[in-house]
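I hope you will forgive my troubling you with a question about protein structure. The full record is reproduced below for your convenience:

——
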Amino acid sequence: MHIIRANQKRFFQLLFLIFILIILVIIPGYVPVYYVSLLLSIFKYTVLTVSWATFCGPTGYISLASAAFLGTGMYVTALIGEKVPLPLVVLFGGLASFLLALLVGLASLRIRGIFFAIFTLGLSEGLRHFINWWEISRVGRQGRWVISAPNTTIFYTMLIILVMTVLASYLIRRSKFGLALRGIGEEEEAANHIGINVNAVKAITFAVTSFWIGATGAIIVTQWSYVDTATAFDVSYSFTPTLMALFGGIGQIYGWVLGSVVFTIITELLLIFPYYYMLIFGSIIISVFLFFPSGLVGVVQKWWKGGLVE
């Protein structure tokens, strides 16, 4: 009986996801451009959040390098966008971030705790300042012109990247890699002693999740005609995915997605209060963290069980 109920639950969840995907596929033709741009922003932050949480959630490692990988993808488009087809540009943007993350992982994943967070934040800032110095002193200009792509092309490319990111996260969590990551998070030394190659698992997972961030940067930058280091390596891209994952609920994929969607929409709505924006926004975040430590997932679960009215 329990097996039948579980299978029915999975079936209805799959139907719901297919329904949402169909809506997203057809929606650009029926809504104003503003809402397409809002959806693109949601897609971007959902990819960043899911990628971040897939590695950082189970391991407990706090990475603040998302800006480095997103900016790398953007600069790949700026450098080769006029020379190769757009699909290859997106692929190369992802591969550049993959290789960067792999090198960083091999060099730094022995570092733990707050030191790893500081190292990855330093990577983002160091890369930003290095490229800025190179452009000014060697190239003679700051920033680069970027090819433009139609909104529909950007939208459907981002939708594909989003679906692939969530699917990859789901498969990683259900694989031996996911089990190894949880073991590393609970007790890394014990995981190492029982035969898990903890450094290889961390480095590979870190690189795979960074691929999607780089691909996102490579396509999302085509919304603009110009990019510089201040835009590409904006430090908020490092901190926002962390807040979104915690806001939604760190333990579940749908929590990461929910946190990204709600967080982005709240940010957009509060822009009508320019003088009180940060005050209201901060109050909302603090309230969720204080009263619902499990994030929005905890709120939904309590509501579903009727716990909020008790």
Remarks:
- Residues 33-59 form the longest helix (27 residues).
- The first strand starts at residue 144 and ends at 145.
